[in-house]
Amino acid sequence: MAGSARSQEAVRAELMAPGQPFEVLDIDVDGVSFRTWKNAPENLVQILERSRSFADREFIVHEDQRVTFAEHYWQAATMAQRLIEHGIQPGDRVAIAARNLPQGIVTFWGALAAGAIVAPLNAWWTSDELAYGLNDSAATILILDEERLARLRKQFNNLEHLRNIVVISDDPAHAADLGKPHDVISLRGYKEFLGPIDRNATLAALNIPGDHDATIFYTAGTTAKPKGAVATHRNSVVSVMSLAFANRCRDVGAGVDRGTAREITLLNIPLFHVTGALAGLVAHTASGGALVTMRHFDARRALALIERERVTTVGGVPTIVQQLLAHPDVKKFDLSTVRSVSYGGAPVPENLPARIKVALPRSLASNGYGLTETSALVAQISGQDYLEHPTSCGVAVPVCDIAIVPESFDGVEPTTECQCATDEAGELWVKGPNVVRGYWHKPQATSQSFSHGWVRTGDIARVDEDGLIYIVDRSKDMIIHMGENVYPSIIEAHLTQHPAIAECAVIGLPDEDVGEEVVAVVVLREEGLASVEEIAAFLKPRVASFEMPSRFYLRPFALPRNAQLKVLKRELRNSLAHEHF
Question: Which DSSP category does 209 fall into?
């Protein structure tokens, strides 16, 4: 039921009051002071243990597979035993490279319950990249699916630490195809490795300290080799609590009482992404919600799943939401159960929250901001606030400090004196107990990005007088044109308002006369809907003269994207440099 809306400031104060679920306390970690959630679990394994109470509720729905919380718990506890039997000790790395499969979820929790560090590897990586991730993390056991096995096989002789590969079958009814055996690396099918489910298994790592390492999530790697961001158990549980707080603020602020209804989420973000793992998997393990996953994302299939499974939450990146709303069959499906639409991780068209309100009037839209290095969530905006400020990603959660400093700032810690004025753009720094401890075995990269509990995000942002954060652009994507800073996301946001444009990207190309030439790459909804001249005429009155692209390219097929569906601008630059698409 909906009641009267309340200010976010009042809602926050109520939820954080002494004795309330989201009370905050001060802690000291290695001489650095933080605020954290008083009632957060000490570690991730405690979340798994508590999930037993949800018993026969459905937890995972994947194609024709359905797994309850009780079944998942015993499978994860058994997996922990098997990993220990195969030599895994606390602090060892267990890698996962697979689609969003139930077996991968079981392995994620089983490895944590064995005291191991989980290294989810990008399932879209090439064989060389997978080998890099395995050697970099020094994982000794890898759980993957048959598709990844075929891709990795030619690298077997180059894997320095890996000794066991466990293969998930593409067809649950049949054993995995292991292919030829290897002299050093042992290959087993997942079912064989897991063996009989032990319903008397106990979780050995229940009392693991919060400052012990839990996961290594690799950065997207669009400009250099990926770096492994090492998150502790504290980083992870704080992030999950922050998401719960933000969602509770959303509901209370909108006067929505969800009662005993539980969340059923269509999870379209890969579990090797920190948002998919923490905001999706771990958050639902903690809350008793259900995860509906797909082998391949397809907008029409997703709409059918929303109707069939009575999905309450849809999210991911803005592209996914846009594809669902734009599908020609969207009105053929019953989407009335959807109560929230949340996304983040990419520039958002200004009209998207209003479009969601029209298409799904019973839902609340939310936009969030976070990084791999911040264990996902830093800020979120939703409901009426989001409709009124559609270009903002919200205010920081209470356990995070933020600072906007000039891009030339080279200090070790932001001070009040060095910060930018209200609404002045600069680099965003974030501090909090969710900020990871650094990059795996990369001290130089760690010292360049992390300092005194802060992380330099590399994002250009501004903060208004109400504390609302606006991401202007990635600093590495910023274009220097005739001495002026050009932020591509501003131009892209205008271009996406053109009714003929499906997607676009603005990039800078080297130019001896102007520094960098501003170039726009545009994909039309249908061929011939608009000409370059029409698009240029549409954009010209909306941007400054130095922001206006000097060239427009009409691309006949989709923009290249990584696993998180972010545009690979490096590939576009290379394509244009060689006059190829």
Answer: -
Residue 462 CB partners (closer than 8 Å, separation 6+): 404, 420, 423, 424, 425, 426, 469, 470, 472
Tell me the pLDDT band of 478, cut-offs 50, 70 and 90: confident
How many Å apart are CA 252 and CA 364, to the nearest integer?
Answer: 12
Sign (positive or negative) of CA dihedral 210, 212, 216, 219: positive
Instruction: Name the nearest CA neighbour of 509 among 544, 472, 553, 543.
Output: 553
Q: How confident is the model at residue 578, as a pLDDT? A: 65
H/E run at residue 139: none
Model confidence at 91, pLDDT cuts 50, 70, 90, reads: very high
Residues 6+ apart with CB under 8 A from 363: 338, 339, 340, 341, 356, 357
Q: Of 359-373, 512-526, 567-581, which range is least confident?
A: 567-581
How far is C-alpha 142 from the chain's CA centre? Answer: 22
Report the distance separating Cα 117 and Cα 88, nearest Å.
10
Q: Where does the chain hold its CATH 3.40.50.980 domain(s)?
A: 45-228
Q: Is the dihedral of CA 121, 123, 124, 126 positive or negative?
A: positive
CA distance 529 to 567: 23
Residues in CB range of 427: below 8 A, 6 or more apart: 404, 405, 406, 407, 409, 456, 457, 458, 459, 460, 461, 475
* Nearest partner of 95 among 117, 72, 125, judged by Cα: 117
Longest CA span, the chain: 72
In what helix (H) or strand (E) does residue 437 lie, and over which residues does it extend? none
Question: At CA 21, angle to CA 55 and CA 255, rounded to 5?
Answer: 95
Q: Where in the chain is the domain with CATH 3.30.300.30?
A: 478-577
Phi and psi (nearest 5°) for 149? -60, -45
Q: Which residues contact 448 (CB under 8 A, 6 or more apart)?
A: 456
Q: Measuring CA to CA, which residue among 270, 322, 324, 315 is closest to residue 289?
A: 315
pLDDT confidence of residue 120: 98
Share of the chain above pLDDT 70, in %: 96
For the chain, give the mean pLDDT.
Answer: 92
Q: What burial class does residue 515 get, using C-beta atoms within 10 Å of its C-beta: 0-12 exposed, 13-18 middle, 19+ buried?
A: middle
What number of H helices and E strands is found in the chain? 18, 29
pTM assigned to the model: 0.86
Answer whether residue 260 shows pLDDT above 80. no
User: For the chain, how big is the Rg over CA atoms in Å?
Assistant: 24
- CA–CA gap between residue 285 and residue 287 (Å, rounded): 6
Which CATH number describes the domain made up of 45-228?
A: 3.40.50.980
Closest by CA to 564, choosing from 230, 295, 268, 331, is 268
pLDDT single digits (tens) 527-566: 999 999 999 999 999 888 888 999 999 999 999 987 667 7
CATH, domain 478-577, list 2.40.50.140, 2.40.128.20, 3.40.50.1820, 3.30.300.30: 3.30.300.30
